[in-house]
Design goal:
By secondary structure, the protein is an all-alpha fold. It has one domain. Helices cover 64% and strands 0% of the residues. It contains eight helices and no strands. Helix 2 packs across helix 5. The longest helix has 15 residues. The N and C termini lie far apart (32 Å).
């Protein structure tokens, strides 16, 4: 995975990745952090490992600038940007109050990595996507999977 990790990091700064990010930013109005913090990358790399999706499949999807994938990313950002951010915490480490005033000041460069995982797994079927969503501890797994699959279907 060390070689894959290096390739995955390099992918997020490749011209094809940049072009896809630029288009998504233009269409949604989001901003992307120029830096890719090591801790954030490790988190994203962990999600790739958890998903079982090949980094090469992610690279192929991004490199082709697949129109369905770009449309999916745009639709997902537009749908979920209005929802409150939630986080699952390990038992005993729950946060008692969540600061609703906290706002993201931009997205991580890894956004396309995360969205490509969901897109590729969603194309394989809701069960495969749901297994990943549960392993990744994404809140409200069944509803989240339903929403993601719906966005994939609308983008095809």
């Amino acid at each position: 995975m060390a070689n894959d990790a290096h390739e995955l990091y390099d992918l997020t700064f490749s011209p094809q990745y940049e072009e896809s990010l630029d288009e998504i930013c233009r269409r949604t109005g989001i901003s992307i952090h120029a830096q890719y913090d090591e801790a954030i990358f490790r988190f994203d790399k962990g999600r790739v490992v958890t998903s079982g999706v090949s980094p090469h499949d992610i690279e192929s999807l991004v490199a082709t600038r697949d129109r369905r994938f770009i449309d999916f990313c745009v639709a997902k950002i537009q749908r979920f940007e209005k929802q409150d951010a939630k986080q699952d915490f390990p038992k005993g480490e729950e946060v008692e109050t969540f600061d609703q005033k906290e706002r993201a000041l931009g997205f991580s460069r890894g956004i396309l990595l995360m969205y490509s995982i969901e897109f590729l797994l969603g194309l394989e079927g809701p069960q495969r996507l749901e297994a990943y969503v549960k392993k990744a501890r994404i809140p409200s797994a069944k509803k989240y999977v339903k929403d993601v699959v719906d966005l994939i279907e609308r983008s095809t």
